[in-house]
Design a protein that fits this description.
The complex is a heterodimer of chains A (94) and B (158).
Chain A lengths: L3 E7 L5 H15 L4 E7 L12 E4 L11 E3 L2 H4 L3 H13 L1
Parallel strand pairs in A: 1-2, 1-3, 3-4
Chain B lengths: L10 E5 L4 H14 L6 H12 L3 E2 L5 E3 L12 E15 L2 E15 L7 H11 L2 H9 L3 H12 L6
Parallel strand pairs in B: 1-4, 3-5
Antiparallel strand pairs in B: 2-3, 4-5
Classes of the chains: A alpha/beta (94), B alpha/beta (158).
């Protein structure tokens, strides 16, 4: 299976994406999935449209992308985090 | 790596405010006075909050984690404010919704992509109703500081 490129983005690329990045890293390890995580600001997503497989973000995005976008707020509040993890895993296993 | 500043002087209890802009200005000014952030921090953090809201509805009280780019920061700092009355903040990732925020953690980070352990622990605090409840009711800054210092394990962190 080809290594998936996963973008992890928030407004500043400082705080929330760091937490989400850590959570996905752990999840990938637990599931023996080899993923290429890239932590960026949401404004930088445009540079990756041709290469990314998935965008996980805590910031609002109205743009349409050629890959799925998953809201990652659950990683910060704990509310609904299992559902979010399931969604991400499904995408990573595709 | 420079040490993180979090003490009684960066904790504001019973902060009276009507708008999120005012909350951010008051918290930011406190940090500017102590030269922990540059004067540009205040406008930058307000602009960022309006662009990318940081309100988080939790199972207990709502919190917000305003922050902005590293170039406005002199010294890595966490400032916490408990608001006398909740103030509406936009919900992170959903600009059509607001949430009544009672506790604000202003994160002044001096490096991007750093502080993973600290931030993860902070998020655990948000998921811990008892701790949040303690923070919104406790009137002694030192007790607030002690509890958070323990929860976030500042000493020897990273």
């Amino acid at each position: 299976m080809a290594k998936k490129q996963v973008l992890v983005a928030c407004g500043a690329g400082i705080a929330t994406s760091t937490v989400v990045n850590g959570a996905i890293e752990e999840m990938a390890k637990e599931n023996n999935l080899d993923v290429n995580l890239i932590q960026i600001k949401i404004a930088e997503v445009g540079s990756y449209v041709d290469t990314a497989d998935l965008l996980v973000t805590t910031a609002m995005t109205k743009k349409e992308y050629p890959f799925p976008v998953i809201n990652a707020r659950a990683f910060l509040t704990g509310i609904g985090v299992e559902d979010t993890k399931k969604q991400i895993l499904e995408e990573l296993k595709k | 790596m420079s040490d993180l500043i979090f003490d009684e002087s960066t904790i504001l209890l019973d902060l009276e405010s009507d708008t999120k802009e005012d909350v951010l200005t008051k918290m930011g000014s406190n940090l500017v006075d102590k030269e922990l952030v540059k004067e540009s921090y205040i406008d930058a953090v307000i602009k960022r909050e309006n662009e990318f809201a940081t309100g988080l509805p939790t199972s207990g009280v709502s919190v917000a984690i305003p922050h902005t780019d590293v170039e406005h920061v002199n010294q890595k700092t966490i400032s916490m404010a408990v608001l006398k009355e909740p103030v509406e903040f936009g919900v992170m990732g959903d600009d059509s919704e607001t949430t009544p925020v009672k506790v604000v953690f202003m994160l002044a980070m001096d490096q991007p992509h750093s502080q993973l352990t600290l931030l993860q622990k902070l998020m655990q605090v948000f998921q811990d109703e008892d701790t949040l409840q303690f923070l919104v009711t406790e009137k002694d800054k030192t007790k607030v500081k002690d509890l958070l210092t323990e929860k976030l394990a500042f000493e020897g962190g990273e």
